[in-house]
Amino acid sequence: MSHASSTLVPTPARTRRPAGERTARASGASPVAALGFAVGLFVLARLAGAAVLAGAAWAVGKQPLGLLGRSWDSLWYLGIAAHGYGRTLRFPPDLLYSDLAFFPLYPALVRAVSTLTPLEGAPAGLAVAWVAAGVAACGIYRCGELLYGRAVGTTLVLLWGLLPHAVVLSMGYTEPLLTALAAWSLYAVLRGHWVRAGALAALAGLSRPNGFAVAAAVVAAAAWEVWRRRGRNVSHRLWTGAALAPLGWASYVLWVGHRKGDLLGGYFEVQRRWGSTFDFGRGSLHFVRHLLLRGDRLVFAMVLVIVAAAVVLYALLLLDRAPLPLLVHSGALLLIALGGSGFFESKPRFLLPAFPLLLPLARAVVRTARARPWHATVVVGALAGLSFGYGAYLVVLADTPL
Prior knowledge:
Layout: H1 11-15, H2 31-59, H3 64-69, H4 73-83, E1 88-91, E2 95-98, H5 105-116, H6 122-148, H7 150-161, H8 175-191, H9 194-205, H10 212-228, H11 236-244, H12 247-260, H13 266-273, E3 277-278, H14 282-294, H15 298-319, H16 324-339, E4 340-341, H17 347-350, H18 359-371, H19 373-397
């Protein structure tokens, strides 16, 4: 099987694009220019969001760069980058916050930047996150462009940069890194580059606990390809990619287990002591019941709306018969967000790497833009206002873990 061959992006599906979604090569824009335009829009969106956040921070006497680089989980990652693992904090009655809950790739990159450049601490963390966000935007564009053309690819990137929680993409967090690795791994799967997809999935598994969703997508796509071929004429590259994909996540989980004296259960015990378990959504449902009956802060109501919107978008993705790896990746991330207990306010952040959920919306915006340009402009403007305002509120005023 050649590197570029894949049944995951059938040629007929590409040739049957609706007229409103075709991107003519005669438009004059080179592929590099089209990619640059898409990433430029993303950068402009995030710079505008950062400007609003900076204004809000200065208005209340806070430093915006300090908020972006040293908030909540960022402090744990910076500690690991500077001193390695070994820090714990105890809270009654039985919470034990251990830095072993945090995967190693991001702090390792922060440490590398601190070693090789004049940047140290929070500035190094922000540099890694910002570069990763740009790389993620490139990968997201490539996935959208491969499936539905340049216009959808560009819109997909812009919508990702205008999500209500997109402020996290400007912070010293791991979501930009995971999304970058996920986007390029999924793109490699769609193109049939199995070894590259598996290697990137392995790195994704070293970046965050939910990074295994990328490995699940690669393995599922490989299994489908093997089944489709009835096990015949399957390239060794496919087997290699599928074998590589889960190694990163599994290696760290087993390393923590070994360190804790419980090879298979040690890491999950660390998460349990943080109050994070997978209870099939029982804890989340209890909190939603409390929210609906008694109300609570704006952040929790927004979480409920965002997660509900993600469920609807996933249903639309299924109805659009999106490629299998995109469905598995987004479905796994959505399942984790829905079924995990603890840190209810963080669920939208956990969904940031699930960019394929935005494909149905991106296609709808492109169709609207071509039929009624001002309608699409109003929609995107409203999303931008929500993203910038809510992002500034989250970081500057909400005092709630992201």
